[in-house]
């Protein structure tokens, strides 16, 4: 490597250090501000022409928001609509109603898997809390299972975190898909293949082992709030009343699966149909992420929103609130896009490519490790994904290949691991279930780290066939 290449690599290392420091120091910069500030510093240090820096920032931020931002907004609105209409509650209860105590963790896993497709980790967990609490109450009084809350929470955490990190159209994997120019349908399919064994190991299997070793019980008032049973705090044996729900299960499942099905159909059409085929062109159109998410949202709006008896005003209010919830994530993604564009325009991307080719590093392992360290250091899985994607984009030369889709999965898996006290999800789990810091570490942090490692191993296993 030349001296200039080494200089650019040193600038990259300094940029990562500055990013971590700004976010975690007493300054407590918002990740968006930190990313934009570091991007300007990197451009100046790398010798990028001053008149081109603003253009790089704008094109990088605007480009990624154009690709991912609209899709993310539709996803957030779809998730809120599913929740507000009672569709997610319907799906969850349909899955677990007839389960035996021994099989309940597997049914909760199934419920979390379906619900986790369109929802963020935190939102999905909040949606599932009423189900987990009410079923855990039932187990506690009828089967005397120790720590039934952990017994059921572990599968939910495992499934939700796996889908959130490894499977598009969640924002993190979608950012990686766009940044690496990966095939979306192939990335979804590969992500699901990697996700299934990962969820099983991190969820029901680990949950069955760890539950007897943790004495966890949430605040009785919180249990009463989520189960809708006002006497739960005083009467643990009181029976919870099911919620009224006008949504049919078939409609609820269809609303969840429509966007993903359209994206996968596009990939199938591109694989089996000739380029001149009219059907292929139609499938390519409706399988675009923006179109697929719009179609899924409109289907849910009419099939679930209006049919469930919700007023137009309440639907509109819920959708507005859902967009407020993702505004911060959109800004982080925009900052990441600016950072990635600066890395490309300043020549740092080529320096990384040169260094990696000279050292013969496994790109999948490198992507996982970068995302893991950045996510752990900054407290943001999104920062971990967007920064790792920008650094490794020059190494993903064939965007449509299986190897590139596996890199998407590896980066997403890396962003999940070591989820600790600087992550919002850690505190949500800890406080929701009344855990001590040690109990949250043994459950939530460990589950997410198992997900991360299993995701990497699955990606490496499938890379044998790439």
Please summarize what this structure is.
With 466 residues, the protein is mainly alpha-helical.
Helix content: over 70%
Sequence of secondary-structure elements: HHHHHHHHHHHHHHHHHHHH
Q: So what's the overall shape?
A: globular
Q: How many H/I helices?
A: 20
Query: What gyration radius follows from the Cα positions, in whole Å?
Result: 22 Å
Could you say which structural class the secondary elements and strand pairing correspond to?
mainly alpha
> What do the pLDDT scores average to?
82
Q: What is the total tally of β strands?
A: 0
pLDDT < 50 stretches: 230-244
Fraction of residues in β-strands: under 5%
Major beta sheet summary: none
Characterise this structure.
The chain has helices at residues 3-24, 31-45, 50-84, 87-96, 104-116, 121-142, 148-166, 171-180, 184-210, 220-227, 249-272, 278-286, 289-306, 312-345, 348-359, 363-378, 381-392, 402-416, 424-432, 437-463. 77% of the residues lie in helices and 0% in strands. It starts with a helix and ends with a helix. By secondary structure, the protein is mostly helical. The model is unreliable at 230-244 (pLDDT under 50). The protein is globular.
Give me the secondary-structure topology:
Blueprint (H helix, E strand, L loop, with lengths): L2 H22 L6 H15 L4 H35 L2 H10 L7 H13 L4 H22 L5 H19 L4 H10 L3 H27 L9 H8 L21 H24 L5 H9 L2 H18 L5 H34 L2 H12 L3 H16 L2 H12 L9 H15 L7 H9 L4 H27 L3
Helix pairs in contact: 1-2, 1-15, 2-3, 2-14, 3-8, 3-13, 3-14, 4-5, 4-6, 4-11, 5-6, 5-7, 6-7, 6-10, 6-19, 7-9, 7-18, 7-20, 8-17, 8-18, 9-11, 9-18, 9-20, 11-12, 11-13, 14-17, 16-17, 16-18, 16-20, 17-18, 18-20, 19-20
């Amino acid at each position: 490597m030349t001296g200039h290449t080494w200089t650019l690599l040193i600038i990259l290392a300094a940029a990562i250090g500055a990013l971590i420091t700004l976010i975690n120091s007493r300054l407590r910069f918002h990740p968006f501000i930190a990313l934009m500030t570091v991007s300007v510093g990197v451009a100046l240090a790398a010798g990028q022409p001053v008149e081109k820096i603003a253009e790089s920032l704008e094109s990088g931020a605007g480009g990624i928001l154009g690709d991912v931002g609209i899709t993310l907004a539709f996803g957030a609105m779809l998730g809120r609509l599913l929740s507000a209409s009672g569709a997610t509650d319907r799906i969850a209860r349909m899955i677990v109603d007839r389960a035996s105590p021994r099989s309940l963790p597997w049914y909760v896993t199934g419920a979390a898997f379906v619900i986790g497709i369109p929802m963020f980790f935190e939102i999905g967990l909040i949606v599932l809390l009423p189900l987990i609490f009410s079923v855990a109450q039932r187990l506690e009084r009828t089967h005397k299972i120790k720590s039934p809350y952990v017994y059921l929470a572990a599968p939910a955490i495992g499934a939700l975190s796996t889908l959130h990190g490894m499977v598009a159209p969640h924002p993190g994997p979608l950012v990686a898909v766009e940044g690496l120019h990966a095939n979306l349908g192939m990335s979804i399919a590969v992500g699901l293949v990697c996700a299934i064994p990962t969820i099983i190991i991190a969820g029901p299997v680990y949950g069955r082992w760890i539950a007897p070793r943790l004495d966890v019980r949430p605040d009785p008032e919180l249990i009463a709030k989520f189960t809708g049973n006002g006497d739960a705090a005083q009467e643990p044996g009181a029976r919870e009343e099911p919620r009224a729900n006008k949504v049919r299960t078939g409609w609820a499942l269809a609303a969840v699966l429509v966007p993903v099905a359209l994206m996968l159909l596009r990939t199938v059409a591109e694989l089996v149909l000739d380029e001149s085929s009219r059907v292929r062109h139609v499938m390519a159109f409706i399988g675009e992420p923006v179109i697929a998410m719009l179609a899924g949202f409109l289907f849910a709006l009419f099939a679930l929103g209006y049919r469930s008896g919700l007023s137009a005003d309440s639907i509109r209010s819920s959708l507005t609130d859902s967009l407020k919830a993702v505004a911060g994530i959109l800004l982080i993604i925009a900052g990441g896009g600016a950072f990635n564009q600066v890395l490309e325009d300043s020549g740092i991307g080529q320096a990384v490519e040169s260094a990696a080719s000279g050292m013969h590093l496994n790109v999948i392992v490198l992507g996982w490790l970068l995302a893991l360290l950045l996510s752990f250091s900054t407290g943001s899985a999104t920062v971990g994904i967007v920064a790792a994607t920008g650094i490794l984009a020059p190494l993903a030369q064939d965007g449509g290949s299986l190897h590139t889709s596996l890199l998407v999965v590896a980066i997403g898996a890396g962003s999940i691991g070591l989820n600790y006290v600087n992550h919002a999800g850690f505190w949500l789990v800890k406080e929701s279930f009344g855990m001590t810091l040690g109990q949250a570490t043994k459950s939530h942090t460990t589950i997410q780290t198992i997900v991360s490692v299993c995701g990497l191993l699955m990606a490496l296993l499938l890379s044998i066939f790439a």
